[in-house]
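Q: what sequence does this backbone want?
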């Protein structure tokens, strides 16, 4: 199962954006982006910025036997 981070990394890699361009658009430090793409963590704030740029959205899925809140 892919994690949220894995999905975001894949989207960034497939986007064609350079690290420099991601930095310019989002304001996220280039080193932060580089470290994230190498497998390190980043803040949710920065992940949210990148996910929005990539057109990603977190949506709940229904699971058998689980009650919705």
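A:
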């Amino acid at each position: 199962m892919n994690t949220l981070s894995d999905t975001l990394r894949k989207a960034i890699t497939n986007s064609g954006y350079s690290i420099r361009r991601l930095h310019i658009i989002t304001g996220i430090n280039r080193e932060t982006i580089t470290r994230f793409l190498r497998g390190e963590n980043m803040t949710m704030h920065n992940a949210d910025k990148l996910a929005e740029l990539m057109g990603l959205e977190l949506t709940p899925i229904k699971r058998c036997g689980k009650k919705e809140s």
